[in-house]
Amino acid sequence: MAKTLTIKLVKSPICGVKKDQTATVRALGLHKVNSVVEQPDNESIRGMVFKVKHLVTVEEN
Fold first, then answer.
1. d(Cα 51, Cα 55) in Å, to the nearest integer?
2. Using CA atoms, how far apart are residues 49 and 1, in angstroms rounded to an integer?
3. Among 22, 24, 46, 53, which one is most buried in terms of CB atoms within 10 A?
């Protein structure tokens, strides 16, 4: 069984955030505050999460 990450957007990426971080949030599939997505646990997703760690919370499944 493949591991997944549950990622929740807890802070808005609109004000005071660089454009590349906003693009990373969108690429993860998050659109509104409190939206939740499941992504596969791999290095590329973890790198994206690390880039926006101040905007999201992550749970390992």
1. 9
2. 22
3. 24
